[in-house]
Structure formats: C-alpha cells, structure tokens
Amino acid sequence: MVRDSLTSSDEFLRDQLHSIEIKERKVSDILEAMSLTGFQGRKLGEALDVWIKALRDEDIVIMMGYAGSLSTTGQWRIIKWLIENRYIDVLVSTGANITEDLIEAMGYKYWRGSPYINDVELRKKRIYRFYDVYVKENDYISMEKMIAEFMLTLDNKKIFTTPELLYLFGKWLSEKGIDGIVTAASKHGVPVFCPAIVDSGFGVAYIHNIHNNKEFRLLVDQFKDYELLLRIKLQSKNSAAIFVGGGVPKDFIQLSAVATDILLSDNFYECRPHKYAIQITTDSPHWGGLSGATLEEGISWGKESKEGMNVQCFCDATIALPLLAHSLLERIKSPRKGPDLSWIFSSVK
C-alpha cells in the first residue's frame, strides 16, 4: 500500500522547486530563478515568461490596463518606454495616470514624503499627498490649466473618442516639448483609451473652460470607444491582456473578450478569450471586487481561456513593473513592430 501511494503521487511531483543561489546576474535571470521557487516570487517570474511569449506571437494585439495613480510614484517613464518599443499596442488608463505624468514632463517635481504626517499642515502649505509622495498644489493646477488650454484648440462641433482626443493632445504636447505618455503614444501610433476621463485633471479643465466661456463644449463618445476596442481585437488573431492594478481599465479590456463577436453576428454567447493574461494586483478576490477577481474567475465569463497562459501575481505594481520592464529590456532587446492601428486616428490627422 505504501508503494502504491508513492507511485500515485508522481503526478504531483514532476516540477522540482529550486532554491535561489546568490550570484551576480541580470534582473531577468533573477526573475527566471524566482519562477522556480514559490509564492508571489514565482508568479512574478511566470509573468515575465508569459509577456515574452506574447511579444513573440506573430498575430496578436497586446493591451495594457494601467490603473490607480501610479504615474506619481515614478512609473510613467516605464509605460512610455513600453509604448515606444511597442511592447504594448493599446493602453487603457485612468485619467490620473495620463495627466499626473505631465507634472514631471512639464519640469515640475514630485517629492518623497511620509504617510505619517499632519495633513492639516500640508493643506496650509498647499501640498497634496499621495500616500508617501507630495506635490505642490500650484504645480498640479498648472497641469490642469495646460489641459484646459489644449481643450480650447479643439473643434467644438466634433464628437471625439478618447483615443482621438488623446492623440491630438499628444501632438499638441509634442509641439510644446512636453514628452509624456500620450506624447509617446501619439508618435508611435498607440491608441490610449480613458474610459473614466472626467475623473482626472481633464474633468477639472473642462469645468475651468465652461466657467470662463459659456459657449465652450467638448463631447466625447465613450460608447464609440468600446466599439473601437472590439474592432482592434478583431483585427488580430489573438490578444494579450496585461493588467497593472484593476479598476475600470481592467474591465474595459476584459469586456472586449466577451462582446467582440456581437459585431459579426447577433450571438451574445460566443467569446474570444485573451490567449495571454497577466494581472499585477494587491487586491484580494474574497471581497468580490473586480480589481481582485482572479483570472480563473475570468474563465467563467469567457474573458480568459482555460487553454491560455494566465498568471496572477499579488504584488505592489511599483515593485513588479520596474522588474518586468528591465527584464524585457534584457530579453527582447529590440523594438517590436506590432499591428498597425493608425486607422483609429484617421479622422483627426
């Protein structure tokens, strides 16, 4: 009986764990070693492997969801680099991430601070706090006023999608020598979707303009945004979803998997799951929220495929994203072409 028990356990004992040895090596080699260990270190190493496989797929669109307010933490240049090298083809972002990067791009600064501070005193000194990051109120308002200035250049009779609006914003910023995320996206033909754009400096800028000019208006069609994302997914045989955090950017990309075929027929029941999916999150699944929902849960919706490559890593994005990006630099080495998505901007070029 003992021998039979040992024999039947072989199916569970095929992949040996390898302890990490300390030696000089590249970041990507460290993540590879971590992939042979356990817990979230292993998942981070596996995430690198999945991203590399997606980049080497010949007919694929790679979408990234960029949530929260991560640009304030020094991550925005990583996103810009991923765009410039076409390691992502589509960016779906919160409004915060594609406006707050502009603080540094404009020449202002963020400051390392402390979460253990008297916020009443910060308010008196006109300093905003993002956990342990500070920014001067005047600098933040300058960014919002700049967005308001850009809005005044737009055709107030046109209805924009957010990729069109942000494409024009990127071109406008480029002319001013302000090199942020949307500037890079505009130059490299990467559409940027922002499904909750008013929840940011864009919303404040809009209010600023209508206060000063009752004739001002700006119309954005976010239903058209969704249609565009579905058409982007249809253009390629496969798709990859990389979620940095959760929130609206995550679900916007996830829903592209369940609704794409409706464009081709009346079939509400056919899905096109993402072939590859990576999620970096600190949210837990047991609260029932979308940000912590596992990729396995996504299989029940048809968002991910049980035959696909899915990796969920519970880790702070400010730890995971720099390690993954530097590892891609070491392993991929050269820019990728990616699908041609220039048709998205055809009406505003």
Oligomer: single chain
Secondary-structure element sequence?
HHHEHEHEHEEHEHHEHEHEHEHEH
CATH architecture: 3-Layer(aba) Sandwich
Structural class label: alpha/beta
CATH topology: Deoxyhypusine Synthase
The CATH class: Alpha Beta
Describe the main β-sheet briefly.
Answer: 6 strands, parallel
Strand order within the widest sheet?
A: 7-2-1-9-10-11
- On the 0-100 scale, what is the average pLDDT? 95
Shape field? globular
Distance between the termini: 75 Å
The helix tally amounts to 14
State the low-pLDDT regions, or none: none
The count of strands amounts to 11
Relative strand content: 15-25%
Total number of distinct structural domains: 1
Helical residues, percent: 40-55%
CATH level-four homologous superfamily name: Deoxyhypusine synthase
Task: Provide a quick synopsis of the model.
This protein has 349 residues and is α/β, with parallel strands linked by helices. The protein has 14 helices and 11 strands. It has helices at 2-8, 27-34, 39-56, 76-84, 101-105, 119-124, 137-151, 162-175, 181-188, 201-212, 222-235, 247-259, 295-301, 317-332, and strands at 60-66, 90-93, 111-112, 127-130, 133-136, 159-160, 192-193, 219-220, 238-244, 274-281, 304-314.
Explain the overall architecture:
This protein has 14 helices and eleven strands. The chain has 349 residues and is of the alpha/beta class. It has a single domain (2-107, 137-345), classed as 3-Layer(aba) Sandwich (Deoxyhypusine Synthase). A six-stranded parallel β-sheet has the order 7-2-1-9-10-11, with helices on both faces. Strand 9, helix 12 (247-259) and strand 10 form a beta-alpha-beta unit. The longest helix has 18 residues, at 39-56. The radius of gyration is 22 Å and the shape is globular.
